[in-house]
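Hypothesis: this fold can be encoded by more than one sequence.
Test: take the C-alpha cells below, design a sequence, compare later.
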C-alpha cells in the first residue's frame, strides 16, 4: 500500500472585526500516490499494519476558539481530511498563534502507539473595529442609515 501525497492548506481571515465570528480551516487534500509522506516515511512499506489518525490543534491568544481542544480525523486512502475552528474576538489587536498537526500511528496488532509532529504553522490575525463599534453594531447602524435615507428621500 502506497502512502499518499497530501497538500496542507490553511485557510482563514487575516483580519476580523471585533465581535464577528469567522472560521479557520486546515485541509489535507489528496494529490497523488507517492512513496514518502512527511512524518510517516518510516511506515511507508507496511502502512496496512497501522491505523493513522491526524490530530490538529489551534492555539491563538486573544481569540475565542471553538472547539478549544484537539480535533482528530482518521486518514483514509484518497480521502481529504478537514479540520474547522470557529473564532471570535472581543478586543482590538494582533493575535498570534500556531496550528499544530500531529499523526498518531497505531499498530493494528496492538503494539505501542506513536505520536509524530508533522507541522506547526504560525498564524496571525488582526482584529479591528469600525469607530470602536463591533461588526454587528456597525451593520445595524448601516441598515438604520439605509432606512433613514430611504424615508428622507
Amino acid at each position: 500500500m502506497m502512502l499518499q501525497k497530501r497538500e496542507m492548506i490553511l485557510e482563514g481571515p487575516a483580519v476580523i472585526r471585533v465581535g464577528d465570528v469567522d472560521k479557520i480551516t486546515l485541509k489535507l487534500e489528496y494529490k497523488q500516490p507517492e512513496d514518502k509522506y512527511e512524518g510517516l516515511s518510516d511506515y511507508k512499506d507496511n502502512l496496512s499494519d497501522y491505523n493513522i489518525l491526524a490530530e490538529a490543534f489551534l492555539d491563538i491568544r486573544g481569540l475565542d476558539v471553538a472547539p478549544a481542544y484537539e480535533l482528530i480525523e482518521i486518514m483514509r486512502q484518497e480521502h481529504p481530511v478537514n479540520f474547522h475552528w470557529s473564532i471570535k474576538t472581543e478586543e482590538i489587536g494582533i493575535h498570534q498563534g500556531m496550528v499544530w498537526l500531529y499523526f498518531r500511528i497505531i499498530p493494528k496488532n496492538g503494539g505501542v502507539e506513536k505520536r509524530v509532529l508533522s507541522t506547526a504553522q504560525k498564524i496571525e490575525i488582526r482584529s479591528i473595529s469600525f469607530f470602536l463599534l463591533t461588526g454587528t453594531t456597525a451593520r445595524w447602524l448601516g441598515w438604520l442609515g439605509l432606512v433613514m435615507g430611504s424615508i428622507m428621500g
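Helices lie at 135-152. Strands lie at 4-11, 15-17, 21-33, 50-60, 64-66, 71-74, 81-88, 93-107, 114-128.
Hypothesis status: open.
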